From TrEMBL:
Signal peptide (residue range): none
A Pfam family it matches: SPOC_AIPP2
Entry protein name: AIPP2-like SPOC-like domain-containing protein
Entry annotated with the keyword Chaperone: no
GO biological process: negative regulation of transcription elongation by RNA polymerase II
Keywords from the UniProt entry: Metal-binding, Transcription, Transcription regulation, Zinc, Zinc-finger
Amino acid sequence: MPNVLRCMLLPCCDCWAEIFQNYSPTVNDMALFFSPGDFERSKQQYFSLLELLETRDMALRTNINGVSLLIFSSKRLDKDSYGSDVESFLWGAYYPAKGRLAAPPLLNYDSQANAANVEQ
């Protein structure tokens, strides 16, 4: 995964039903959890982004190796799945173009072949 994600801001209504069709997602649907880091500036930016997503009911979308990553506020998760004493956080779910949850490919076929050749 790249160190910096270039994301597009979009309304949750544009992507939520496509991914989580007839159920409310839980922590089991999370592929990634994002934390703000240790620096005060990072924390301020993280919580500003979290507030933006929550107050405007938005999500972030990016593409990694041909697989989409959607990032949401934890306010969109079923509260029973993570507890009421947990602060809000950012989480992500992968999905292919058809809308099913998926994990991104870690290595493509050529990368695997090259890695095998290097090891020999």
